[in-house]
Amino acid sequence: MLELAILGLLQESPMHGYELRKELATKLGTIRAAISYGTLYPTLKRLHTAGWISENVPDGDTVPPLTSRRGRVVYKITAEGKERFADLLAQAGPETYDDAGFGVHFAFFARTDRATRLRILEGRRRRIEERREGLREILARATDRLDAYTLELQRHGLDACEREVRWLEELISNERSGRSPAAPAGDSPPAYPSPHQDRP
Amino acid sequence: MLELAILGLLQESPMHGYELRKELATKLGTIRAAISYGTLYPTLKRLHTAGWISENVPDGDTVPPLTSRRGRVVYKITAEGKERFADLLAQAGPETYDDAGFGVHFAFFARTDRATRLRILEGRRRRIEERREGLREILARATDRLDAYTLELQRHGLDACEREVRWLEELISNERSGRSPAAPAGDSPPAYPSPHQDRP
DNA sequence: GTAACGATGTATCGGATCGATACATCGAAG
DNA sequence: CTTCGATGTATCGATCCGATACATCGTTAC
User: Do B149 and A106 touch (CB under 8 A)?
Assistant: First the structure.
């Protein structure tokens, strides 16, 4: 999952690890608070071994002992890496529908074709609907077995599910009618400031 | 984190692994969809080694070869396990405020003292507020660097944060005034079907 | 001037957890 | 009478996190 995110960001521009981590946090926002270095560096090493990225260690050829710069490794995507990224972008399996997988894929929807976008959005919706039904089941069946706090937790979870389904439905509807992702679907006004829709 | 959940459930009644997994799914609901057996059994083993639970393998003493029942191991909490559970319940550190940790602790709030409940709720609120501020920062600062889909993702995340902060505030307010967790705080009517509040 | 500090930067280790897989029992449906 | 789905125990490889260590750089404070 992280693999997709890294390749996607390096496609935009080469970066070193620290920068990559910050950009990752910005791009993924709430999905993955911040990637641990214990995840990032091994993954970068793996991507390098696979030949999808290159590691550029700038050892100043003729000036090694003067300042002895600590190696600031710049990572750059390769041609094979771009192919790999395209492959990952196009696939939509079960792992694409869980919280982390969906978030990462969604973050790169601008570079995903519409058919795949729709498949992912619908798969995710299905997933959340199942979760929602599970919670409704619990709330209908086990009301007496569970204490007030546990029930409140389930209600809060159910609320979040219903909200996400509505959100997904709006996104799906927008995709089908060829609208911008954030454009309001018609009757319901947007709750957030409009994303400057200057192309009619 | 899983340790707390297992000890908590086994405190209610002894269970075998399969049952434990199902109860865990019911109790934690949206927090942790379903615990993998690859997590559950090693954790049970660990708890057993630590002396917090006992493993009861019912090998029918005098009837070994007749049906040769596959060992259905029944796990039971020990006195030390109960102490351990109480210790875990009472502590409120940074790991108590992330998504998984908070959810598990909240699920056992019925057995947590009020002071700890308040500390955890406030710590969690702080955590979500920080996440919210981070998202606002991104939405204010990086609007032009991010595409429409990424922005929409951030907005959805921000919305979820604001919602959770409101939820936490209501819970905190209820705790302070000694109300039931799910009771409405006063002016705002509940968004979900009232949890049959037949006591006035 | 220089010492301290916070941001930048690379890297590893142990531990928690997941998903896939394997295997075995049992009751019911066909 | 056999196949199938639910029940049940268990392990393996891979992913990811949190803590930790260490080094550089610029700014601020003394």
Answer: yes
Task: Return the amino acid letter for B89.
Answer: L
| pTM reported for the whole predicted model | 0.85
CA distances from B92 to B33, B104, B106, B119 (A): 24, 12, 11, 7
Contact A190/B at CB under 8 A: no
Q: pLDDT in tens for each of the 200 residues of chain A?
A: 899 999 999 999 999 999 999 999 989 887 877 889 999 999 999 999 999 999 887 654 434 443 445 568 999 999 999 999 999 999 888 889 989 899 999 999 999 999 999 999 999 999 999 899 989 988 888 888 889 999 999 999 999 999 999 999 999 999 999 877 765 554 444 444 444 444 43
Check if residue B30 sits with its Cβ under 7 angstroms from strand C: no
C-alpha distances in Å from residue B141, one per residue of A57, B122, B151: 31, 28, 11
Question: Which one of A102, A111, A150 would you mutate to disrupt binding with B, by most B Cβ within 10 Å of its Cβ?
Answer: A150
